[in-house]
């Protein structure tokens, strides 16, 4: 049985890597065939939650992931409406995970795709991501928990699938009601039906395989189990081969596509993402898949990530990419001071949530 599950993960990873290369070839930004954080940010902008004109688009990839997971969970009778596990904390943690990802300029999935495209900054992000997961596992080993969720009414479980379906239908029929970028990353996208079809397949496979980057490293650290991690190795290898074949591989730190070479904040941004993901029980990709499978707590987390994306661009918290000035000189990107404060604050919040949800503190609170 374990061998079968491992193959599910590897096949899913290979298809994600291939799809990322195809989506980039057909219009998505470079090294961004898939990015949960970036695409949720674009959706938030298109819905008017922030006014950053260069990152506004209804990304079919996000919609497809949720709907694919929903269909697969229903077909396999794994759809289960449940909720009630610290929803307010999950909303806050989801927002900070998004802020950390936008400080790095990518989620864990894009981190792997950036590395496969030759972006050496992703190595720094990977080390930070691993450090955050390691910190989270220390508390898991000591009994950290946001408490269990409980069975709920079916309507609770379809909130995100229905919401995404409505957004898709409106986007296809009356796109004028949305804000859509005319320049920048938001203006670069693959054809809607290609993006939707590929992402629905991936959503279905990810639901079946339980693909999760944070979960993969967590399981490797805690149990020596590399099954989930093997999926991201497959993503990297397939995307690397695709980039080499299409001559899209460019190794280096500076001037990588939609990336910055401020190493401290690449590290700390992904530390926040890794730690927050462990506390939440899954990376941003996994949260979308769980929400599509009926998990109301993950739906709240996704709403938190949308709020985090809005805050990042409304209050100037997001990272800026490396660039060149009018004279052709290199200008290093990075984080504004407000973004640095937000990332450090997020790490402090993760520490507080980790400590205060250990059994000994929970028992003291219950005794009162």
Automatic annotation (TrEMBL):
Record carries keyword Membrane: yes
Transmembrane segments: 7-26, 57-76, 88-111, 123-141, 153-178, 190-206, 226-245, 265-288, 300-321, 341-358
Name recorded for this polypeptide: YedE family putative selenium transporter
The keyword Hydrolase belongs to this UniProt entry's keyword annotation: no
Keywords: Membrane, Transmembrane, Transmembrane helix
InterPro entries reported in the protein's UniProt record: Seleno_YedE (IPR026366), Sulf_transp_TsuA/YedE (IPR007272)
Name of encoding gene: yedE
Pfam families found in the cross-reference section: Sulf_transp
């Amino acid at each position: 049985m374990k061998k079968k599950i491992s193959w599910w993960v590897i096949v899913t990873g290979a298809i994600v890597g291939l799809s990322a290369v195809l989506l980039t070839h057909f219009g998505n930004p470079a090294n961004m065939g898939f990015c949960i954080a970036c695409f949720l940010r674009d959706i938030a902008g298109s819905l008017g939650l922030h006014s950053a004109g260069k990152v506004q688009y209804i990304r079919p990839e996000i919609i497809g992931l949720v709907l694919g997971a929903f269909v697969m969970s229903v077909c396999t009778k794994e759809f289960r409406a449940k909720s009630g596990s610290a929803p307010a904390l999950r909303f806050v943690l989801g927002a900070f995970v998004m802020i950390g990802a936008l400080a790095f300029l990518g989620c864990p999935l894009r981190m792997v795709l950036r590395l496969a495209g030759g972006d050496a900054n992703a190595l720094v992000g990977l080390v930070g991501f691993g450090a955050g997961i390691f910190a989270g596992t220390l508390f898991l080993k000591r009994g950290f928990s946001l408490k269990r969720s409980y069975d709920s009414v079916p309507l609770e479980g379809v909130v995100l699938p229905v919401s995404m379906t409505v957004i898709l239908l409106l986007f296809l029929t009356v796109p004028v009601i949305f804000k859509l970028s005319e320049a920048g990353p938001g203006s670069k996208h693959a054809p809607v039906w290609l993006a939707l079809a590929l992402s629905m397949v991936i959503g279905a496979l990810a639901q079946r395989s339980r693909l999760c980057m944070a979960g993969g490293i967590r399981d490797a650290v805690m149990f020596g189990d590399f099954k989930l991690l093997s999926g991201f190795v497959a993503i990297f290898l397939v995307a690397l081969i695709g980039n080499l074949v299409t001559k899209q591989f460019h190794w280096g730190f500076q001037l990588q596509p939609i990336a910055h070479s401020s190493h401290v904040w690449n590290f700390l941004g992904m530390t926040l993402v890794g730690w927050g993901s462990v506390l939440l029980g899954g990376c941003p990709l996994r949260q979308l898949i769980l929400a599509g499978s009926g998990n109301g707590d993950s739906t709240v987390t996704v709403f938190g990530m949308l709020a985090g994306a809005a805050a990042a661009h409304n209050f100037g918290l997001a990272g800026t990419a490396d660039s060149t000035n009018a004279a052709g000189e290199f200008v290093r990107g990075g984080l504004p001071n407000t973004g640095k404060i937000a990332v450090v604050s997020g790490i402090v919040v993760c520490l507080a949530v980790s400590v205060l949800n250990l059994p000994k503190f929970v028992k003291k609170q219950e005794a009162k």
